[in-house]
Amino acid sequence: MSFPINVEIRFRYMAISDERQRVMPTSSDRKNGRELDYPEAVQLTNPSNASLLGEVDDKYQYSCDNKDNRVHGWISNCPAVGFWMITPSDEFRVGGPFKQDLTSHCGPTVLSMFVSTHYAGTGMVMHFKEGEPWKKVFGPVFIYLNSDSVEENRQGLWQDAKEQMRKETASWPYTFPLSPDFSHSNQRGCIRGQLFFYDRYNSIHPIPAMFAYVGLALPGEIGSWQKENKGYQFWTRADSEGNFFIENIRVGRYNLFAWVPGVIGDYKYFELITITPGCAIELYDLVYNPPRKGATLWEIGVPDRTAAEFFIPEPEPGLGNHLYADFDNYRFRQYGLWKRYTELYPWKDLIYTIGDSNYKRDWFFAHVTRYTGNYSYKATTWQIKFQLNNVCKTRNYTLRLALASANRAELQVRVNNEAAKRPLFTTGSIGKDNAIARHGIHGFYYMYEVGIPGKELVNGNNTIFLKQSKASGLFNGVMYDYIRLEEP
Q: In terms of Cα–Cα distance, which of 143, 148, 159 is closest to 17?
């Protein structure tokens, strides 16, 4: 749902979170600006507010994960009025809690996104077989207006909007909907339990899945909740001991899914969960066994489903968004960061040496193409250099590749021979999440297991070549989440 506020001269201040608030340009400012690499991105060349001169405006700079998208909106100064979109539940949104989507943006426009392919790709498009029945209740969402007698009391209006959001969230599911398709609290059930994970190379006993994300979604394969779009999803976050509680679950059959920050991969409880009115299901001593074949020889990054820990450059001078100038944790929202790779590596690609390099400084956040001039681009090959002793020639080593995003990409793996005609492994063509262009630090999550025959390795210096082979434009590429090499 889109709500254009047709009093642009008054509503100039936008708020998405405690940190992400600012005076915004007008739609006229955008029309008079310079279009950049795609229509949504515009440099403000003659704004009505001189302090915005030179900034980049792009609606995707204000995207947000579903789990964090509870309240956003606009504030006018004279009179002091706030217009807010409050979403009290995520149950009807597609793609789970980490699906990113639009919020508010220049217009002024306020959005409530239920279904989209943003940061996910065409896999999020609904497909129906002939005669397939389907229905789903989207919302309700809450439109909230507030005011203050004190002009420019922006923080007062924002804090009041957040308090109203907390009230609406506590009131879910609402009692007023009369549609028989909307389930009220007495028609729903709940589930509680405790999740552990067991990695025999790190602990002799299962460890509580601290702050794991745990949810119910329609039955499917491991990780299928990412692209699930026809049903409802219900998520929570476990406590420090892995205890979780999910309430107000609609009647139906679900799989229970989870992932643990700092632990690679996805968990799925393989028995179906059947929710009936008033049920209170208990599932204790659940244990996730993350993929593992041998002890860690080395690793790059942190398994958190994002590329946020890697090197994120400053934006090109003159093409920044002032909102993010002082917030390093939001630097990835700046425009044009993909171009900085060619500037940093104009002739040779990234080389990362285990034991010497630091992924926070030496691993670029996105494996993208190199611009060679005249609207031409070149595939890029990154190298990971490492040493091995006492190589076991008769067994396989295991390379684990977790990707935080992929867009029209193909990632090929070669070992100790960059010129090998055939790669040891290829992902094939993957991804259309466009998270690189849309200032997202993550999109659709992928995980691969690559067996490396010991005979391909040598005692001493070794090199793994990661080639992103697609080079049709600016935005072919992947973002890595985590890479690990395991011994046999």
A: 159
